[in-house]
Amino acid sequence: MKVGKDSVWSNKKIVFVTGKGGVGKSLIAAGIARQQALAGKRVLLAEIGENSYYKDFWQLSEIGHEPRPVPKENFDVALWSGESSLREYVLFYLKVERLYKLFFENKVMRSLVNVAPGLSEIAILGKITSGIRKVGPPLPYDLIVVDTFATGHALAMFRTPKGMMEAIRMGPMGHQSREILNVLQNRELTSYVLVSLLEELPVVETLEFQAQMKADLGVEAHIIENRVVRIPVTENSLEKLGDTNEAGLSEFARFLKAISEKQTRYHAQLTKQSPPVVSVPMIFSNEPKELVDRVAEVLNL
Amino acid sequence: MIANLDRLLKENKVIVCAGSGGVGKTTISASLGTRAAGLGLKTLVLTVDPAKRLATALGLDLSDDSEKRVPGQNFKGELYAAVIDSRKTFDQFIARHAADKTQADRILNNRLYQQLSTTLSGSQEFTSLERLLEAVESKRFDLIILDTPPTKHAMDFFTAPQRIHALFQDSITKWFMDSGNSGGFISGLISRGTRTVIKSLEVLTGGQFIEELVDFFAAMRAVQKTLRDRSVAVQKLLSSSSVKFLVITSFDAAKIEEAKYLHGALKKLGFTLEAVIINRAFPLWLHDESSQKALKSNDPATQKVLLFFEEFRKFHAFRYSLYEDFAKSLKGSANLFRIPDFGEDISGLADLQKLANRLGEAST
User: Is residue A21 within 8 Å of B22, Cβ to Cβ?
Assistant: First the structure.
């Protein structure tokens, strides 16, 4: 039985998209943003960390903490780092002009966020969940799609509120960590999309991540298999072509057959526990607009 | 000419495989290991987070980070492998370099450290390099191949020692020094601006959080000098002439851009980039003429496959142009090797050796 896509990102407030490095998370996140924007939602595509992927992807001059529209798309994009999120939070609550300047000019902020264990992660999660928790400046969006870190770092981030709560039980930090965790664990508000390829390492990481998220946070992550090569002929035909003398053709046929077998094997492994939500085909394009459109189309089916 | 690759392995002490996630660094590191062992070298492959099958092929148990002789080998030399356990290495580093057990325990028992040390910026990179340094200093191996941890930006790896050192340098830990004083945790030495920032942070995060932070910083001061010494030693090792860097990348526009950037950045750091390896490049088997000819075939399956090939080819032609521009820009300052994608999985020592042979062939 296929899991309804609706239950994964429609009617949610936050969708975290993660996966092993190199599996195409950012494109899938952009595709979800577009698909939901087309459905009439006010959508923000949020990148997290220090560096922007979408800046080069869409060839924009800048992506910063403040959301900006994506040209030719009907959603916004922003880049939230630990430092920018913490700074915004502090300023919002202190509301003192003198402090405003201080926080912008003081090197302490940057160093502190980098050094203090977990502070950067909690600041980013705090920002993402701020609308729901009604803290900080308002975010006028129905949905935030987060292009999250790769699985290892993402897991460390999702564990941070719990870790912080264990370490710090009292005061605003303990309280906020608990609230953030509540949002992360709330199935009505938040969902997790795990992008995988039908290859060994991504599949193994995907399944491990899913199990860890279940164990640590009690949440289920939904799988999207990406870059699935749709081969136009049967494996039988490929086998026959692989045996011909036509040098290049037979090699290509054998290459496709190897891919086909591999995909079948890893699809079975990936979907043993839970069915994938969507299977996104390999898209033969190098154009950002076309890529995002095609992914959004597939997600809409 | 396989000698090219073999010379690289024979004439160096350390090979560092760099590159961002998902490009096959671990597999290539391991396959280079089999080649080096085949040449008679006592070789160690240091890896982070290997895939299960690769770990099995190397005889690694992921819960044990000691150096293990790879089972089932029949090399002229010897092949060893180890998984780097970041947390364990960092804990051991602190235990070893703190002045005494009390100081070590103060860090290891700090609640923030216990809960969140995995989020410590640069700690995974730092521990990889620390482990490399230990292995070099042990003088047990002729060659060590380091598979670097996945970073979003491959450069993060090389700046990690400086970063982690900078984190705990005097000026920062000083902020938190006088925690025992009645005036609070903030040293009188720091500027009033910084003091205000930290005080405000205390209002927002709570006293307990700041207390734990203070404790953490104060405790880290105990290993601060060693951190600095080790990061200097790592820097010296990496820029020595017997250490060579390989950048592994995949056949993808963004990844090639990153490889270009890395190539320039490594040079600036004084490191020697030996080669850029483009892994899993799409093999161009068919020429235009042959596919045109075959399109006239009467067999529908043949036609479909050829049309499909055309799609593949057009898609990759663009990437090939990037690859060729890159090759030109290197102008012989580093080699560019291309390993075609064969659509197969690597599942044993024999496969790793086969991959190394391809790498050897590519290094002509």
Answer: yes
